[in-house]
Amino acid sequence: MTGKPILSIGEAMVELSPSGQDGLWRLGIAGDTLNTAWYLRRLLPADWRVAYCSRVGLGEFSQQMVDFLAAEGIDATHVTRDPQREIALYAISLKDGERSFSYWRDTSAARGLADDPAALAAALAGAGIAYFSGITLGILPPAGRAALIAALKGARDAGTQVVFDPNLRPKLWPDIPTMCREIEAAAAVADLVLPSFDDERGFFGDADPQATVARYLARGAGQVVVKAGGDAIRYGGREGAGLVEGLPREVPVDTTSAGDSFNAGYLAARLDGADIPAAIRRAHDLSRVVIRHRGALVREAVARG
């Protein structure tokens, strides 16, 4: 079955990740919404179109990002160019499988991805799924956030399924109240919200995953699936409610793209006709493989044959 295009919206960056050898780093291209697009491209049949919407500069590393998308089969039609700014950079540090990040993104070209409402509307026109995150919102100035939310609402009204991962990163925001307010405003235009419970508990004070489900549904989300770091996954909304238990645990090597790959696995399984519990299990199995490897994009997790 072939569906309408999938558009992922956000910031791609140059990634420096530990190679496993002292003093050596591996250079790649990654970023939360790009990671999900990359996994979707590998999980879905070739006749599905997966596209990325962002903004980069004119320099060598920006061109590497565009070339990377082309090489990986991701449509870069809606990646625009900024003559003044460049692609951002981040580095991953690891300790006992948990990651921390150092960022160089204050002058990122992606901060202007929503500056042109006409270009944004054109990118969203005809999309079957539009995917974005709290990081997408967090890098944008207030006017850009408002423009993106308005464009997504218009796309949803026109039949696009809007999917949102809150991906709470307080360092991107002026303060935590602003972050929480904007995240919930974004959830209000989403058909599906994919939060992580540890973040939601920490910043919204949710007592349990059911509280996270209820809060986002009350804000206007259509369906909520709460990732729980390997614990049982709670979901709820207009497509049903339940709890998926007995998920196998994994000792992580690198959790960098755990949630991003889960999101891709879940969406791909649903597009393949799986019900919600089966899609959650397939997404969890993919994420388990991803966290056994270093870096955000793990080819071993999606190798075919």
From TrEMBL:
Transmembrane segments: none
Keyword flag Transferase: yes
GO molecular function per UniProt: 2-dehydro-3-deoxygluconokinase activity
The keyword Acetylation belongs to this UniProt entry's keyword annotation: no
CDD domains hit by this protein: KdgK (cd01166)
GO BP annotations, alphabetical order: D-galacturonate catabolic process; D-glucuronate catabolic process; DNA damage response
Residue intervals of the Carbohydrate kinase PfkB domain: 8-296
Domain of life where this protein originates: Bacteria
Keywords: Kinase, Plasmid, Transferase
Coiled coil regions in record: none
GO cellular component: cytosol
Family stated for the protein in its record: Belongs to the carbohydrate kinase PfkB family.
Protein's name in the database: Sugar kinase
